[in-house]
Amino acid sequence: MRHSRPLLAASVVAVALVVTGCSAGTAPSGSTTGAPSANNPYAPKVVKNGFSTKGGNVNVLMSSDFQTLDPGNSNYVQTANVGQLYYRTLTMAKETAGQPPKIVPDLATDLGKVSSDGLTWTYTLQDGLKYEDGSPITSADIKYGIERTFARDVYTQAPQELDAVLAADTYKGPYSGGDLSAIETPNAKTIIFHLKQPYPDFPSLASRSNSAPVPQAKDTKLDYTNHPIASGPYMISSYDRGRQLKLVRNPNWDAKTDPNRTALPDTFTFSLSTAQATISQQLLSDSDPTAITLDSNGALQASDASRLADQTIAPRTAAGLLGCTDVLDLNTTTITDPDVRHALALAMDRAAIQVQYGGKRFGKLTNSYLNDAQVGWIPPTIDIDPTGKPKLAEAKKLLQGKTVPKTLTYGYANATERFKNLGTVLQQNFKELGIDLQLVAIPSPNYYTTLAGDQMPDIARSGWCGGAASGSTRTTVDPNLGPSLDGKTYGFSNIPRFYDANLSGQMYKLRNTNGSSADLNKQWTQLYNKVMEQYPMVPLIRTYTSSVVGSKVRNAQVGYFFGSIDLSIVGVEH
Fold it and tell me: Where is the signal peptide (predicted)?
Protein backbone atom coordinates (compact mmCIF):
# COMPACT_ATOMS: atom_id res chain seq x y z
CA MET A 1 0.00 0.00 0.00
CA ARG A 2 1.22 3.42 -0.89
CA HIS A 3 2.57 5.28 2.11
CA SER A 4 2.26 8.93 1.31
CA ARG A 5 4.89 11.07 2.93
CA PRO A 6 3.74 12.88 5.00
CA LEU A 7 0.70 10.74 4.30
CA LEU A 8 2.92 7.82 3.42
CA ALA A 9 0.70 5.91 1.24
CA ALA A 10 1.22 4.66 0.22
CA SER A 11 -1.12 1.36 -1.46
CA VAL A 12 -3.47 -2.55 2.62
CA VAL A 13 -0.75 -4.75 1.05
CA ALA A 14 -1.05 -8.53 1.26
CA VAL A 15 0.43 -9.50 4.58
CA ALA A 16 1.16 -12.58 6.60
CA LEU A 17 -1.42 -15.23 7.32
CA VAL A 18 0.92 -16.50 9.99
CA VAL A 19 3.33 -14.25 11.82
CA THR A 20 6.86 -15.58 12.04
CA GLY A 21 9.75 -14.41 14.14
CA CYS A 22 10.02 -13.52 17.81
CA SER A 23 7.24 -11.96 19.77
CA ALA A 24 7.78 -8.58 21.36
CA GLY A 25 6.12 -9.96 24.46
CA THR A 26 3.67 -8.29 26.82
CA ALA A 27 4.83 -5.89 29.49
CA PRO A 28 3.04 -4.95 32.69
CA SER A 29 0.35 -2.31 32.42
CA GLY A 30 1.74 1.20 32.25
CA SER A 31 5.21 0.14 31.12
CA THR A 32 7.22 1.02 28.06
CA THR A 33 8.45 -2.02 26.12
CA GLY A 34 11.51 -2.33 23.96
CA ALA A 35 14.92 -0.77 24.24
CA PRO A 36 16.84 0.10 21.07
CA SER A 37 20.55 -0.44 21.68
CA ALA A 38 23.85 -0.40 19.85
CA ASN A 39 23.32 -4.08 19.06
CA ASN A 40 19.74 -3.56 17.91
CA PRO A 41 19.14 0.10 17.01
CA TYR A 42 15.85 -0.77 15.31
CA ALA A 43 14.13 -2.55 18.22
CA PRO A 44 10.43 -1.73 18.73
CA LYS A 45 9.18 0.43 21.60
CA VAL A 46 5.59 0.52 22.88
CA VAL A 47 4.51 3.32 25.22
CA LYS A 48 2.54 2.37 28.34
CA ASN A 49 0.71 -0.67 27.03
CA GLY A 50 -1.88 -2.72 28.90
CA PHE A 51 -4.22 0.26 29.33
CA SER A 52 -7.96 -0.55 29.10
CA THR A 53 -9.89 2.47 30.43
CA LYS A 54 -12.48 3.94 28.09
CA GLY A 55 -13.09 7.65 27.60
CA GLY A 56 -11.36 10.87 26.70
CA ASN A 57 -10.25 12.43 23.43
CA VAL A 58 -7.13 11.77 21.37
CA ASN A 59 -5.90 14.81 19.46
CA VAL A 60 -4.22 13.78 16.21
CA LEU A 61 -1.93 16.50 14.82
CA MET A 62 -1.35 16.34 11.07
CA SER A 63 0.38 18.62 8.59
CA SER A 64 -2.20 18.07 5.86
CA ASP A 65 -5.54 16.46 5.15
CA PHE A 66 -6.05 12.84 4.19
CA GLN A 67 -5.79 12.07 0.49
CA THR A 68 -9.25 10.51 0.87
CA LEU A 69 -11.48 8.88 3.48
CA ASP A 70 -13.27 6.74 0.89
CA PRO A 71 -12.17 3.12 1.45
CA GLY A 72 -12.82 2.41 -2.22
CA ASN A 73 -10.54 5.16 -3.47
CA SER A 74 -7.63 4.71 -1.09
CA ASN A 75 -4.20 3.29 -1.66
CA TYR A 76 -2.75 5.04 1.39
CA VAL A 77 -1.71 3.72 4.78
CA GLN A 78 -2.86 6.84 6.62
CA THR A 79 -6.40 6.29 5.35
CA ALA A 80 -6.11 2.61 6.25
CA ASN A 81 -5.00 3.56 9.77
CA VAL A 82 -7.81 6.02 10.49
CA GLY A 83 -10.11 3.76 8.48
CA GLN A 84 -9.80 1.09 11.17
CA LEU A 85 -11.92 3.40 13.30
CA TYR A 86 -14.88 3.94 10.97
CA TYR A 87 -14.94 0.99 8.57
CA ARG A 88 -14.41 -2.76 8.77
CA THR A 89 -13.33 -5.26 6.12
CA LEU A 90 -13.82 -8.99 5.58
CA THR A 91 -10.46 -9.70 7.20
CA MET A 92 -8.04 -7.35 8.94
CA ALA A 93 -4.28 -6.84 9.13
CA LYS A 94 -3.72 -6.79 12.89
CA GLU A 95 -0.55 -5.01 14.02
CA THR A 96 1.94 -6.06 16.69
CA ALA A 97 4.92 -3.81 17.46
CA GLY A 98 8.04 -4.90 15.63
CA GLN A 99 6.32 -7.68 13.69
CA PRO A 100 4.59 -7.97 10.34
CA PRO A 101 0.80 -7.84 10.70
CA LYS A 102 -1.27 -10.98 11.06
CA ILE A 103 -4.43 -11.48 9.03
CA VAL A 104 -7.44 -12.11 11.28
CA PRO A 105 -11.20 -12.29 10.61
CA ASP A 106 -13.09 -9.00 10.83
CA LEU A 107 -16.61 -8.80 9.36
CA ALA A 108 -16.23 -12.45 8.37
CA THR A 109 -16.43 -15.37 10.77
CA ASP A 110 -13.10 -16.81 9.57
CA LEU A 111 -10.35 -16.36 6.99
CA GLY A 112 -12.49 -17.90 4.28
CA LYS A 113 -13.12 -21.35 2.89
CA VAL A 114 -11.36 -22.28 -0.33
CA SER A 115 -12.54 -24.82 -2.89
CA SER A 116 -10.43 -27.86 -3.73
CA ASP A 117 -9.26 -26.28 -7.01
CA GLY A 118 -8.31 -23.03 -5.26
CA LEU A 119 -10.52 -20.92 -7.53
CA THR A 120 -13.36 -20.11 -5.14
CA TRP A 121 -13.27 -18.43 -1.74
CA THR A 122 -16.40 -18.25 0.42
CA TYR A 123 -16.96 -15.94 3.39
CA THR A 124 -19.79 -15.81 5.91
CA LEU A 125 -20.56 -12.57 7.74
CA GLN A 126 -20.99 -12.43 11.51
CA ASP A 127 -24.42 -11.94 13.04
CA GLY A 128 -25.52 -8.53 14.27
CA LEU A 129 -23.40 -6.29 12.01
CA LYS A 130 -24.85 -2.80 11.57
CA TYR A 131 -24.04 0.57 10.05
CA GLU A 132 -24.08 3.82 12.02
CA ASP A 133 -27.78 4.31 11.16
CA GLY A 134 -28.72 0.87 12.52
CA SER A 135 -29.33 -0.76 9.14
CA PRO A 136 -27.80 -4.24 8.62
CA ILE A 137 -24.50 -4.79 6.82
CA THR A 138 -25.02 -7.30 4.02
CA SER A 139 -22.86 -9.29 1.62
CA ALA A 140 -24.35 -7.22 -1.24
CA ASP A 141 -22.86 -4.10 0.35
CA ILE A 142 -19.39 -5.67 0.36
CA LYS A 143 -19.82 -6.72 -3.26
CA TYR A 144 -20.90 -3.20 -4.18
CA GLY A 145 -17.92 -1.69 -2.38
CA ILE A 146 -15.62 -3.84 -4.54
CA GLU A 147 -17.60 -3.11 -7.70
CA ARG A 148 -17.04 0.63 -7.24
CA THR A 149 -13.28 0.15 -7.43
CA PHE A 150 -13.54 -1.17 -10.98
CA ALA A 151 -14.75 2.30 -12.07
CA ARG A 152 -11.20 3.56 -12.50
CA ASP A 153 -12.36 6.57 -14.48
CA VAL A 154 -13.98 7.74 -11.21
CA TYR A 155 -11.73 6.32 -8.49
CA THR A 156 -8.19 7.03 -9.64
CA GLN A 157 -6.55 5.68 -6.48
CA ALA A 158 -8.66 2.57 -5.94
CA PRO A 159 -6.86 -0.56 -4.68
CA GLN A 160 -6.39 -3.06 -7.49
CA GLU A 161 -4.77 -6.11 -5.93
CA LEU A 162 -8.04 -7.86 -5.06
CA ASP A 163 -9.62 -6.82 -8.36
CA ALA A 164 -6.68 -8.20 -10.33
CA VAL A 165 -7.18 -11.79 -9.14
CA LEU A 166 -10.93 -11.91 -9.85
CA ALA A 167 -12.27 -13.42 -13.06
CA ALA A 168 -13.48 -10.01 -14.19
CA ASP A 169 -11.22 -8.64 -16.93
CA THR A 170 -13.99 -6.84 -18.82
CA TYR A 171 -15.98 -5.41 -15.90
CA LYS A 172 -15.96 -1.57 -15.73
CA GLY A 173 -17.81 -0.87 -12.50
CA PRO A 174 -21.44 -0.41 -11.40
CA TYR A 175 -21.93 2.91 -13.20
CA SER A 176 -21.36 1.30 -16.60
CA GLY A 177 -24.06 -1.30 -16.17
CA GLY A 178 -23.75 -5.03 -15.79
CA ASP A 179 -23.06 -7.27 -12.83
CA LEU A 180 -19.72 -8.37 -11.39
CA SER A 181 -20.29 -12.07 -11.91
CA ALA A 182 -16.96 -12.94 -10.29
CA ILE A 183 -18.63 -12.23 -6.92
CA GLU A 184 -21.82 -13.97 -5.83
CA THR A 185 -24.04 -13.09 -2.88
CA PRO A 186 -26.54 -15.97 -2.59
CA ASN A 187 -27.89 -14.49 0.66
CA ALA A 188 -27.33 -11.51 2.94
CA LYS A 189 -24.54 -13.22 4.90
CA THR A 190 -22.60 -15.10 2.21
CA ILE A 191 -20.15 -13.74 -0.35
CA ILE A 192 -18.33 -15.93 -2.87
CA PHE A 193 -15.27 -14.89 -4.92
CA HIS A 194 -14.32 -16.57 -8.21
CA LEU A 195 -10.64 -16.22 -9.13
CA LYS A 196 -8.76 -16.49 -12.43
CA GLN A 197 -6.16 -18.73 -10.87
CA PRO A 198 -5.55 -20.09 -7.35
CA TYR A 199 -4.28 -17.42 -4.99
CA PRO A 200 -3.40 -18.98 -1.62
CA ASP A 201 -2.90 -15.58 0.05
CA PHE A 202 -6.42 -14.39 -0.81
CA PRO A 203 -7.37 -13.74 2.86
CA SER A 204 -4.78 -10.96 2.86
CA LEU A 205 -6.46 -9.38 -0.18
CA ALA A 206 -9.76 -9.56 1.70
CA SER A 207 -8.25 -7.16 4.23
CA ARG A 208 -7.89 -4.47 1.56
CA SER A 209 -10.00 -1.37 2.08
CA ASN A 210 -12.20 -2.10 -0.92
CA SER A 211 -13.78 -5.01 0.96
CA ALA A 212 -15.34 -2.44 3.30
CA PRO A 213 -19.13 -2.44 2.84
CA VAL A 214 -20.74 0.46 0.98
CA PRO A 215 -24.57 0.63 0.84
CA GLN A 216 -25.46 1.43 -2.76
CA ALA A 217 -28.19 3.87 -1.74
CA LYS A 218 -25.60 5.97 0.12
CA ASP A 219 -22.98 6.02 -2.64
CA THR A 220 -22.24 9.64 -3.60
CA LYS A 221 -19.24 8.75 -5.80
CA LEU A 222 -16.36 11.19 -5.21
CA ASP A 223 -18.33 12.97 -2.48
CA TYR A 224 -18.42 9.75 -0.46
CA THR A 225 -15.06 10.80 1.02
CA ASN A 226 -16.89 13.50 3.00
CA HIS A 227 -18.90 10.98 5.02
CA PRO A 228 -18.28 7.26 4.48
CA ILE A 229 -21.03 5.31 6.22
CA ALA A 230 -19.50 3.82 9.36
CA SER A 231 -19.32 0.09 10.00
CA GLY A 232 -16.59 0.43 12.64
CA PRO A 233 -16.62 1.68 16.26
CA TYR A 234 -16.55 5.38 15.29
CA MET A 235 -18.37 7.59 12.81
CA ILE A 236 -17.75 11.03 11.36
CA SER A 237 -19.32 13.81 13.42
CA SER A 238 -17.87 16.67 11.38
CA TYR A 239 -15.33 17.13 8.61
CA ASP A 240 -14.01 20.52 7.58
CA ARG A 241 -11.67 19.65 4.72
CA GLY A 242 -8.12 20.80 5.32
CA ARG A 243 -8.90 21.88 8.89
CA GLN A 244 -10.49 19.34 11.21
CA LEU A 245 -12.05 15.90 11.34
CA LYS A 246 -14.01 14.74 14.39
CA LEU A 247 -14.90 11.10 15.07
CA VAL A 248 -17.39 10.06 17.74
CA ARG A 249 -18.64 6.67 18.87
CA ASN A 250 -20.87 4.69 16.51
CA PRO A 251 -23.85 3.70 18.72
CA ASN A 252 -24.61 0.68 16.52
CA TRP A 253 -21.16 -0.90 16.64
CA ASP A 254 -21.20 -4.09 18.71
CA ALA A 255 -17.91 -4.84 20.49
CA LYS A 256 -18.92 -8.50 20.72
CA THR A 257 -18.42 -8.80 16.96
CA ASP A 258 -15.07 -6.99 16.98
CA PRO A 259 -12.23 -8.25 19.20
CA ASN A 260 -9.65 -6.44 17.07
CA ARG A 261 -10.43 -2.83 18.02
CA THR A 262 -10.38 -1.68 21.63
CA ALA A 263 -12.26 1.58 20.88
CA LEU A 264 -11.06 3.17 24.11
CA PRO A 265 -11.31 6.95 23.48
CA ASP A 266 -14.75 8.56 23.24
CA THR A 267 -13.58 10.80 20.41
CA PHE A 268 -10.74 11.46 18.01
CA THR A 269 -10.04 15.00 16.84
CA PHE A 270 -7.78 15.43 13.80
CA SER A 271 -6.13 18.80 13.24
CA LEU A 272 -5.29 18.82 9.54
CA SER A 273 -3.12 21.86 8.85
CA THR A 274 -0.41 22.09 11.53
CA ALA A 275 3.14 22.65 10.27
CA GLN A 276 5.39 19.65 10.89
CA ALA A 277 7.93 21.73 12.82
CA THR A 278 5.10 22.88 15.09
CA ILE A 279 3.83 19.33 15.56
CA SER A 280 7.32 18.20 16.51
CA GLN A 281 7.74 20.97 19.09
CA GLN A 282 4.29 20.41 20.60
CA LEU A 283 4.90 16.69 21.03
CA LEU A 284 8.41 17.11 22.41
CA SER A 285 7.30 19.77 24.90
CA ASP A 286 4.15 17.82 25.86
CA SER A 287 2.07 20.98 25.45
CA ASP A 288 -0.93 18.74 24.73
CA PRO A 289 -0.74 15.52 26.81
CA THR A 290 -3.44 13.87 24.64
CA ALA A 291 -1.68 14.48 21.30
CA ILE A 292 -0.22 12.10 18.73
CA THR A 293 0.59 12.42 15.03
CA LEU A 294 0.21 10.23 11.95
CA ASP A 295 2.81 12.20 10.00
CA SER A 296 5.79 10.22 8.78
CA ASN A 297 8.70 9.86 11.20
CA GLY A 298 6.42 11.20 13.91
CA ALA A 299 6.77 14.67 12.29
CA LEU A 300 10.19 14.88 13.92
CA GLN A 301 12.64 17.28 12.31
CA ALA A 302 16.23 16.16 11.81
CA SER A 303 17.33 18.83 14.30
CA ASP A 304 15.07 17.26 16.95
CA ALA A 305 16.52 13.74 16.73
CA SER A 306 19.00 14.21 19.56
CA ARG A 307 16.19 15.09 21.95
CA LEU A 308 14.73 11.58 21.77
CA ALA A 309 17.26 10.48 24.41
CA ASP A 310 15.96 13.07 26.89
CA GLN A 311 14.69 11.35 30.05
CA THR A 312 11.35 13.18 29.81
CA ILE A 313 10.86 12.28 26.13
CA ALA A 314 12.25 8.74 25.75
CA PRO A 315 9.43 7.15 27.84
CA ARG A 316 6.91 8.86 25.55
CA THR A 317 8.48 7.63 22.31
CA ALA A 318 7.01 4.71 20.39
CA ALA A 319 9.28 3.31 17.70
CA GLY A 320 9.67 0.49 15.23
CA LEU A 321 11.25 -0.71 11.98
CA LEU A 322 8.60 -0.72 9.29
CA GLY A 323 7.81 -2.78 6.23
CA CYS A 324 7.83 0.57 4.41
CA THR A 325 10.44 1.69 1.90
CA ASP A 326 10.94 4.98 0.07
CA VAL A 327 12.09 5.11 -3.55
CA LEU A 328 12.71 7.70 -6.22
CA ASP A 329 10.51 7.02 -9.26
CA LEU A 330 12.03 7.89 -12.64
CA ASN A 331 9.34 8.69 -15.20
CA THR A 332 10.10 6.20 -17.97
CA THR A 333 7.87 8.04 -20.45
CA THR A 334 10.02 11.17 -20.22
CA ILE A 335 13.40 9.63 -19.34
CA THR A 336 13.13 6.88 -21.90
CA ASP A 337 16.74 5.64 -22.12
CA PRO A 338 17.53 3.00 -19.45
CA ASP A 339 21.21 3.99 -19.57
CA VAL A 340 20.33 7.58 -18.71
CA ARG A 341 18.17 6.39 -15.82
CA HIS A 342 21.02 4.11 -14.71
CA ALA A 343 23.44 7.05 -14.79
CA LEU A 344 21.07 9.18 -12.69
CA ALA A 345 20.88 6.37 -10.13
CA LEU A 346 24.66 6.02 -9.96
CA ALA A 347 25.09 9.79 -9.53
CA MET A 348 22.78 9.97 -6.53
CA ASP A 349 24.39 10.52 -3.15
CA ARG A 350 21.99 8.33 -1.19
CA ALA A 351 24.08 8.67 1.96
CA ALA A 352 23.46 12.43 1.84
CA ILE A 353 19.77 11.72 1.21
CA GLN A 354 19.73 9.55 4.33
CA VAL A 355 21.03 12.56 6.27
CA GLN A 356 18.06 14.59 5.00
CA TYR A 357 15.79 11.90 6.46
CA GLY A 358 17.47 12.48 9.82
CA GLY A 359 20.22 9.88 9.56
CA LYS A 360 20.31 6.25 10.61
CA ARG A 361 17.91 6.96 13.46
CA PHE A 362 15.14 7.37 10.87
CA GLY A 363 15.88 4.39 8.66
CA LYS A 364 18.50 2.33 6.86
CA LEU A 365 19.65 2.44 3.27
CA THR A 366 18.40 -0.33 1.04
CA ASN A 367 19.09 -1.45 -2.53
CA SER A 368 15.67 -3.04 -2.97
CA TYR A 369 11.98 -2.20 -2.72
CA LEU A 370 11.64 -5.73 -1.29
CA ASN A 371 13.01 -7.00 1.99
CA ASP A 372 14.16 -10.35 3.28
CA ALA A 373 11.00 -10.90 5.35
CA GLN A 374 8.99 -11.43 2.17
CA VAL A 375 8.36 -14.82 0.61
CA GLY A 376 10.41 -15.13 -2.57
CA TRP A 377 13.16 -12.74 -1.44
CA ILE A 378 16.31 -12.74 -3.58
CA PRO A 379 19.13 -10.21 -3.10
CA PRO A 380 19.00 -7.29 -5.55
CA THR A 381 21.25 -7.19 -8.62
CA ILE A 382 21.45 -3.44 -9.32
CA ASP A 383 24.89 -1.88 -8.94
CA ILE A 384 24.28 1.25 -6.87
CA ASP A 385 26.60 1.46 -3.88
CA PRO A 386 25.00 -0.20 -0.81
CA THR A 387 26.56 2.44 1.45
CA GLY A 388 24.92 5.18 -0.60
CA LYS A 389 28.03 6.72 -2.12
CA PRO A 390 27.69 8.11 -5.67
CA LYS A 391 29.58 6.56 -8.60
CA LEU A 392 30.07 9.63 -10.75
CA ALA A 393 32.78 8.24 -13.00
CA GLU A 394 30.63 5.27 -13.94
CA ALA A 395 27.60 7.53 -14.41
CA LYS A 396 29.48 9.83 -16.80
CA LYS A 397 30.80 6.85 -18.77
CA LEU A 398 27.23 5.58 -19.28
CA LEU A 399 26.21 8.95 -20.74
CA GLN A 400 28.91 9.04 -23.38
CA GLY A 401 27.27 9.25 -26.79
CA LYS A 402 23.82 9.56 -25.26
CA THR A 403 21.20 12.26 -25.66
CA VAL A 404 21.22 13.70 -22.15
CA PRO A 405 18.36 15.97 -21.00
CA LYS A 406 19.56 19.45 -20.08
CA THR A 407 16.72 19.93 -17.58
CA LEU A 408 14.68 17.56 -15.41
CA THR A 409 11.97 18.16 -12.81
CA TYR A 410 11.70 16.74 -9.30
CA GLY A 411 8.30 16.92 -7.60
CA TYR A 412 7.93 16.84 -3.83
CA ALA A 413 5.12 17.03 -1.28
CA ASN A 414 5.25 20.60 0.01
CA ALA A 415 4.38 19.82 3.65
CA THR A 416 7.62 17.95 4.32
CA GLU A 417 10.86 19.90 4.33
CA ARG A 418 13.13 16.86 3.98
CA PHE A 419 11.60 16.02 0.61
CA LYS A 420 12.54 19.45 -0.64
CA ASN A 421 16.01 18.98 0.85
CA LEU A 422 16.24 15.62 -0.90
CA GLY A 423 15.74 17.55 -4.13
CA THR A 424 18.60 19.90 -3.33
CA VAL A 425 20.90 16.88 -2.91
CA LEU A 426 19.82 15.62 -6.32
CA GLN A 427 20.39 19.08 -7.82
CA GLN A 428 24.02 18.97 -6.76
CA ASN A 429 24.43 15.37 -7.92
CA PHE A 430 22.95 15.96 -11.37
CA LYS A 431 24.90 19.19 -11.88
CA GLU A 432 27.94 16.92 -12.12
CA LEU A 433 26.27 15.34 -15.16
CA GLY A 434 25.41 18.68 -16.75
CA ILE A 435 21.73 18.39 -15.85
CA ASP A 436 19.72 21.20 -14.25
CA LEU A 437 17.15 19.75 -11.83
CA GLN A 438 14.18 22.00 -11.15
CA LEU A 439 12.23 21.50 -7.92
CA VAL A 440 8.44 21.50 -8.19
CA ALA A 441 6.35 21.79 -5.00
CA ILE A 442 3.14 19.73 -5.06
CA PRO A 443 0.36 20.29 -2.46
CA SER A 444 0.55 17.30 -0.13
CA PRO A 445 -3.18 16.40 -0.27
CA ASN A 446 -2.88 16.14 -4.08
CA TYR A 447 0.55 14.53 -4.23
CA TYR A 448 -0.26 11.00 -5.36
CA THR A 449 -3.11 12.03 -7.63
CA THR A 450 -0.61 14.34 -9.33
CA LEU A 451 1.86 11.49 -9.77
CA ALA A 452 -0.93 9.39 -11.30
CA GLY A 453 -1.91 12.12 -13.77
CA ASP A 454 -0.57 14.15 -16.64
CA GLN A 455 1.53 16.39 -14.38
CA MET A 456 3.83 13.59 -13.21
CA PRO A 457 7.34 15.12 -12.98
CA ASP A 458 10.47 13.43 -14.31
CA ILE A 459 11.44 12.30 -10.81
CA ALA A 460 9.33 11.88 -7.67
CA ARG A 461 9.62 10.19 -4.30
CA SER A 462 7.08 7.59 -3.24
CA GLY A 463 6.86 4.73 -0.79
CA TRP A 464 5.23 1.37 -0.25
CA CYS A 465 4.45 -0.69 2.84
CA GLY A 466 4.54 -4.38 2.04
CA GLY A 467 7.36 -6.22 3.77
CA ALA A 468 5.37 -8.87 5.62
CA ALA A 469 6.92 -12.09 6.88
CA SER A 470 4.71 -14.39 4.82
CA GLY A 471 3.55 -11.66 2.46
CA SER A 472 4.37 -12.22 -1.17
CA THR A 473 6.92 -10.21 -3.10
CA ARG A 474 4.22 -9.99 -5.77
CA THR A 475 2.31 -7.57 -3.54
CA THR A 476 5.14 -5.08 -3.95
CA VAL A 477 6.33 -5.86 -7.49
CA ASP A 478 3.04 -6.10 -9.35
CA PRO A 479 1.36 -2.89 -8.13
CA ASN A 480 4.50 -0.77 -8.43
CA LEU A 481 6.06 -2.09 -11.64
CA GLY A 482 3.50 -4.42 -13.22
CA PRO A 483 1.23 -3.97 -16.23
CA SER A 484 -2.41 -2.93 -16.37
CA LEU A 485 -5.15 -5.47 -15.74
CA ASP A 486 -5.33 -6.25 -19.47
CA GLY A 487 -1.53 -6.36 -19.78
CA LYS A 488 -1.43 -3.74 -22.56
CA THR A 489 0.17 -0.81 -20.75
CA TYR A 490 1.66 0.15 -17.38
CA GLY A 491 -0.37 -0.60 -14.27
CA PHE A 492 -2.61 1.62 -12.24
CA SER A 493 -0.19 2.17 -9.31
CA ASN A 494 2.93 2.01 -11.47
CA ILE A 495 4.27 5.53 -10.81
CA PRO A 496 7.37 5.17 -13.05
CA ARG A 497 5.00 4.15 -15.87
CA PHE A 498 7.30 1.23 -16.59
CA TYR A 499 6.19 -0.98 -19.48
CA ASP A 500 8.37 -3.36 -21.44
CA ALA A 501 6.68 -5.74 -23.87
CA ASN A 502 8.85 -8.65 -22.77
CA LEU A 503 9.18 -8.14 -19.00
CA SER A 504 5.68 -6.72 -18.50
CA GLY A 505 4.34 -9.56 -20.61
CA GLN A 506 6.08 -12.06 -18.34
CA MET A 507 4.52 -10.43 -15.28
CA TYR A 508 1.08 -10.53 -16.90
CA LYS A 509 1.54 -14.23 -17.64
CA LEU A 510 2.80 -14.89 -14.11
CA ARG A 511 -0.39 -13.41 -12.65
CA ASN A 512 -2.26 -16.30 -14.23
CA THR A 513 0.20 -19.08 -13.44
CA ASN A 514 -0.42 -21.91 -10.99
CA GLY A 515 2.16 -22.96 -8.45
CA SER A 516 3.26 -22.78 -4.86
CA SER A 517 3.48 -19.44 -3.10
CA ALA A 518 7.24 -19.80 -2.60
CA ASP A 519 7.96 -20.67 -6.23
CA LEU A 520 5.69 -18.02 -7.74
CA ASN A 521 7.04 -15.29 -5.50
CA LYS A 522 10.61 -16.25 -6.36
CA GLN A 523 9.66 -15.76 -10.00
CA TRP A 524 8.18 -12.34 -9.17
CA THR A 525 11.45 -11.37 -7.48
CA GLN A 526 13.51 -12.58 -10.43
CA LEU A 527 11.39 -10.43 -12.73
CA TYR A 528 11.71 -7.51 -10.32
CA ASN A 529 15.50 -7.76 -10.44
CA LYS A 530 15.44 -7.77 -14.26
CA VAL A 531 13.11 -4.76 -14.36
CA MET A 532 15.23 -2.87 -11.85
CA GLU A 533 18.27 -3.28 -14.11
CA GLN A 534 16.44 -0.81 -16.37
CA TYR A 535 16.22 1.61 -13.41
CA PRO A 536 12.58 2.73 -13.38
CA MET A 537 13.14 3.59 -9.71
CA VAL A 538 15.94 3.91 -7.18
CA PRO A 539 15.51 2.42 -3.67
CA LEU A 540 16.32 4.78 -0.81
CA ILE A 541 15.37 4.15 2.81
CA ARG A 542 13.62 1.42 4.77
CA THR A 543 11.92 3.41 7.47
CA TYR A 544 12.49 3.31 11.21
CA THR A 545 9.93 5.58 12.84
CA SER A 546 10.08 7.22 16.26
CA SER A 547 6.84 8.91 17.25
CA VAL A 548 6.59 10.98 20.44
CA VAL A 549 3.17 11.01 22.10
CA GLY A 550 1.55 13.09 24.81
CA SER A 551 2.06 12.06 28.43
CA LYS A 552 -1.55 10.89 28.81
CA VAL A 553 -1.52 8.67 25.72
CA ARG A 554 -1.46 4.91 26.32
CA ASN A 555 -0.97 1.75 24.22
CA ALA A 556 1.05 3.70 21.65
CA GLN A 557 2.78 1.44 19.16
CA VAL A 558 4.15 2.21 15.71
CA GLY A 559 2.49 -0.12 13.25
CA TYR A 560 4.87 -2.12 11.05
CA PHE A 561 2.48 -1.52 8.17
CA PHE A 562 0.94 1.86 9.06
CA GLY A 563 4.22 3.57 9.88
CA SER A 564 2.57 5.64 12.60
CA ILE A 565 0.66 5.20 15.87
CA ASP A 566 -1.85 2.35 15.52
CA LEU A 567 -5.23 3.98 16.14
CA SER A 568 -7.09 0.70 16.69
CA ILE A 569 -5.65 0.17 20.22
CA VAL A 570 -4.57 3.61 21.45
CA GLY A 571 -6.09 5.01 24.67
CA VAL A 572 -5.83 8.15 26.79
CA GLU A 573 -5.90 9.00 30.48
CA HIS A 574 -8.64 11.49 31.33
Answer: 1-24
